[in-house]
Amino acid sequence: MVKGFTQKLRALNRATLSNVFDAARQSDSEWMKSPFEIRLDSPVSARVVDLLQEHYQEMFKHSPAESVHALDISSLNTSDVTFWSAWDDANLAGCAALKQIDVACTELKSMKTASAYLRQGVAAHLLSHLISESSSRGYQTIYLETGSADVFTPARKLYTSFGFHEVGPFSDYELDPHSVFMSLNLLSG
What we know:
189 residues; alpha+beta; Aminopeptidase; 35% helix
């Protein structure tokens, strides 16, 4: 089932940006059916904390400390952040969050796939969910910051396949050679 879901997402990623938005809005459509259940969650639950700790370790492994912008657990557990996890039955497959910047803009934070679920469509499913959720909340733009090192290439490719494009620093970020800033205009669809 995971393989079929991943193939459907790859086919979708070749579609136009308009089709991406249409598909993301149609949560009952066939392509959205996947083995992963997306749940509103708490970043302080034990299994999620373990996954986030792995996320932080990887960020510090591949970027200098001053260029790591991952929110710590207490910062993910605030009123301006909504946190989701992806589950495969009782197994945590991944997580992601949206942090409100203002009434029109949100930021994608803490997108992480569990090691056992890499290359199985978890990140694409979470990203699709976050795009749909952002649109339903009335946001006009989703921003994100990711690393510029080669290890972050798959993430940048995923974001680009969903219509994100590179932009300059946003919100409180500053230009950083270890960061790539991206955005998706939700009004383009």
